[in-house]
Specification:
single chain, 127 residues, Rubrerythrin, domain 2, Immunoglobulin-like, 2 domains, 3-stranded antiparallel β-sheet, 0% helix, binds fe (ii) ion
Amino acid sequence: MTKLREMYKCSVCGNVIEVVHQGASALVCCNTPMEKLEAKAEDTGREKHVPVLEASGDGILVKVGSVEHPMEEKHSIRFIEVLTKDQVIRAELVPGQKPAAEFSVKPEEVLEVREYCNLHGLWKINK
Ligand SMILES: [Fe+2]
């Protein structure tokens, strides 16, 4: 059974989806069951993926990561999401942009921040 806010990826075509209303017992893409994405929370290796939060005006600035992540056509951060009790706020990024986004959300309301790298998957920081 899927759960609200879970993310799944198709291992065949690369589709990534987020559950916005739970109900399906299984998600299928390209005639293959989709794989649930588990967000990693600890960086390994040279590239840094775990989001970093900073206060910014009335909201927050999220950077990926502690060392700036590449934003190339073949390897980049595709989105950053901020999860609160009742909202999912997503910034969509494109190659060439900075791997960062500002969100108008009070820092104390943030439950989780996650980002998706097209090569290295889903990463998060729990507040
Ligand atoms: Fe990456």
